[in-house]
């Protein structure tokens, strides 16, 4: 089955934004057992959109477009594609009702232009968009005059905003694909997530041990982000259901405690789950991470059961007054030191009354480094009923990657402590 | 001039990585005055690469490929393209010398397979790669048999690693383009960023007023994210340098205080800049945003000059003990209320001793709503020497978008207060 993506948007061609739809949609389709053959980006002009859709329809069983379904003058996908396929547009009463309700729920007036989003090409399926006003649209092009042999194709248009596109894809597109296309060849896949170990070391630890399985058809893929390596083990064909579990067992044995999750579970979700199961609570004392740990923890639904409070103590005064760090410790060791990290964690735990308290202090840069403590230096401490543990890390990265990696190291220190692994 | 990009890599099609080359190359070419017409991603098989290159060459004056120049078995771009163009590959002595030197400088043995990277299609220019072993390759396809009319094209192959591709592009490709292509038509562009107003309302406010300019060639583009609409005004040709500033003046007059930045400046950067200029300080009291405001503020270099401390007070106890919210206020109004938001802001300001304190309390969901205060309800308060202002918002979004939008509204409340706009 041939799948092509057409992502539209002048902002893509100007280099203003990253094409996150490509990665997300490709990953979802891969997980479901399909592979995307081609992805094309064009500006949102009628001619470019129609041209890219025409070419994709000449080759593919399924064409997915993103963007250009909104109410503004550069939203031309619906119109261009309806014209290309010779389908008249008709106002859909249920979509119009949904748009009215959307604005009513927000107590906002409904601009006249939003009614455009209720236009549906004749014969198209409407894919509801609970998070926005423009629905997705699915059209069976049958027969497809653009394809040799006249085989049929499906064309699915999705709205551009990721927070609308993603749930719509999961809730409506995947079930539709399962219904209208034959199931993909036996495909089995698992992703294991490791932390505290780099990509080349992961590869060194597992590839030799997996050699017999890769000879039999196992595929190994890696994807690394600051403080995280995803290992994707996959196989196709009748052997897939055996190969992948065997490979998972070997990989888990080799990487052991470095593996913190499978699938797409984030480290913050693991930590919230572990604490919730144990009815334990957490406090945070963040200096260099500046609220990044709290932000990640509170992205997890149910975080309010475990996170009592977080203190972002950027200034020395705040470290003294809010956390009870001692002035003599600050004077003797400086704000970026193991001693201060320990007092931050212990102070937060005592004052907030939590089972665990995590603290981080370091130099995110670009300024503030010294020969003894260059930019990237970090001290992380964790206080609990079993005492306080601390570690020093060196994360010489840009500011945002520094915060991401440091928060990952801090959350992993907590995960290992909760699980009794005793240190990283 | 028609430019197309072909980015190759199976990891792109599997959704393992983001296509950062697309954004980076498009941004560089836009800055130099050109526009990319199309970008295609394919897997790194010989057939897919040759197919994508053939189609791009049938349309474009310039085709740039990325990836597939390395020494491993899935590096097939050089070979596929040489075959497509009927150019034999010859070993280039200077490239081979560079590769030898590269390994020698690192005291590493030179694997035999790396010699492949010294193969150059007949007639190609070698673009040196000081950071790696595979050079870039530029071929003038003259005449181009794939194009109607037989016009000529250029095809440039770049290595995949960003740290190699980027300097090579800047040092060798841009000068080559300036030499072999006519200078691009006058191009002018500005992006204005608005907040506190939706995409359709922005359009209603400006498009009629800009009608004469769009008739003269002005292009308007929109890109919206939670709490933010980017308006891109651009034009080409001799008139561009007049049209865009006129359009900017009109747009600024219409949207007025809703515009918070131009270019790609983020709202948190604007706020940090305004506070820094005024030597003023900030404290945060976050409940429903869970550290998102602190995280955004501390992403800005120099944030430590303005942010004294942030308190993430998820639990009621933390609101009482850390912020001094009164138990009777909590009992009478509930944690999600204007009264509590005001006491959070005032408590944070008094206890931390900052010029401004921002507070947010609300229901992020998915659970916790009630008929009187459904999921999405938020109260934001800002305390300063001029008293306390508060506002109620309704943000019924998924959890992460809720936090992003609420933090945007809070930062905008602060921006307007600093600038003396008095309320949103």
In short:
By secondary structure, chain A is of the alpha/beta class.
Describe, in plain words, how this protein is organized in 3D:
- The structure is a homodimer of 424-residue chains.
- By secondary structure, chain A is of the alpha/beta class.
- In chain A, 40% of the residues lie in helices and 24% in strands.
- Chain A is built from 15 helices and 17 strands.
- In chain A, the strands form four sheets. A six-stranded mixed sheet of chain A has the order 2-1-3-8-7-6, with helices on both faces. A five-stranded mixed sheet of chain A has the order 14-13-15-16-17, with helices on both faces.
- In chain A, helix 2 packs parallel to helix 6 (162-180) and helix 10 (267-277) runs parallel beside helix 15.
- The longest helix of chain A has 20 residues, at 399-418.
- The radius of gyration of chain A is 26 Å and the shape is globular.
- The mean pLDDT of chain A is 92.
- Strand 14 (307-313) of chain A pairs antiparallel with strand 14 (307-313) of chain B.
List its salient traits.
424 residues; globular; 15 helices; alpha/beta
> What profile does the largest beta sheet of chain A have?
6 strands, mixed
**Strand pairing plus helix content of chain A: what structural class?**
alpha/beta
Helix fraction of chain A, binned, reads: 25-40%
Shape of chain A: globular
Which radius of gyration of chain A do the C-alpha atoms yield?
26 Å
Number of helices of chain A: 15
Which sequence of strands runs across the widest sheet of chain A?
Answer: 2-1-3-8-7-6
Largest interface: A-B, 94 and 94 residues
Q: What multimeric state do the chains show?
A: homodimer
Low-confidence stretches of chain A: none
Q: What fraction strand of chain A?
A: 15-25%
Tally of extended strands of chain A?
17
| Chain-averaged pLDDT of chain A | 92
The first-to-last residue Cα distance of chain A is 45 Å
């Amino acid at each position: 089955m041939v799948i092509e993506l057409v992502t539209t948007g002048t902002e893509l061609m100007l280099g203003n934004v990253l094409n996150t739809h490509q990665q997300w949609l490709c990953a979802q389709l891969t997980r479901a057992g399909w592979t995307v053959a081609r992805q094309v980006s064009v500006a949102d002009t009628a001619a470019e959109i129609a041209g890219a859709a025409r070419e994709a329809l000449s080759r593919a069983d399924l064409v997915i477009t993103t963007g250009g379904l909104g109410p503004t003058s550069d939203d031309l996908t619906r119109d261009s594609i309806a014209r290309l396929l010779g389908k008249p547009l008709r106002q859909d009463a249920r979509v119009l009702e949904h748009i009215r309700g959307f604005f009513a729920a927000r107590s906002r007036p409904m601009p006249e232009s939003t009614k455009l989003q209720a236009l549906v090409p004749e014969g198209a399926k409407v894919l509801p968009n609970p998070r926005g006003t423009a629905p997705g649209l699915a059209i069976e092009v049958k027969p497809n005059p653009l394809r040799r042999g006249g085989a049929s194709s499906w064309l699915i248009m999705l709205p551009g905003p990721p927070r609308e596109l993603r749930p719509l894809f999961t809730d409506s597109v995947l079930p539709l694909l399962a219904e209208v296309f034959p199931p993909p060849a036996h495909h089995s896949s698992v992703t294991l997530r490791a932390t505290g170990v780099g990509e080349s070391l992961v590869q060194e630890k597992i590839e030799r041990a997996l050699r017999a399985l890769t000879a039999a058809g196992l595929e190994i893929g890696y994807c690394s982000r600051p403080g995280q390596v995803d290992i994707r083990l996959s196989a196709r064909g009748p052997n897939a259901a055996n190969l992948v579990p065997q490979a998972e067992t070997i990989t888990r044995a080799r990487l052991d405690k470095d593996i913190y999750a499978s699938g797409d579970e984030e480290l913050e979700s693991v930590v919230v789950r572990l604490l919730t199961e144990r009815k334990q609570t957490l406090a945070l004392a963040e200096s260099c991470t500046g609220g990044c740990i709290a932000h990640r923890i509170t992205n997890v639904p149910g975080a309010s059961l475990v996170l009592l409070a977080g203190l972002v103590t950027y200034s020395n005064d705040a470290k003294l007054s809010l956390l009870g760090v001692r002035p003599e410790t600050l004077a003797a060791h400086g704000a970026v030191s193991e001693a201060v990290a320990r007092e931050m964690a212990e102070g937060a735990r005592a004052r907030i009354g939590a089972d665990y308290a995590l603290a981080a202090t370091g130099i995110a840069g670009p300024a503030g480094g010294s020969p003894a403590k260059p930019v990237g230096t970090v001290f992380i401490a964790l206080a609990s009923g079993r005492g306080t543990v601390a570690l020093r890390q060196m994360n010489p990265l840009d500011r945002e990657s520094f915060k991401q990696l440091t928060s990952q190291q801090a959350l992993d220190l907590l995960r290992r402590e909760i699980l009794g692994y005793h240190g990283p």
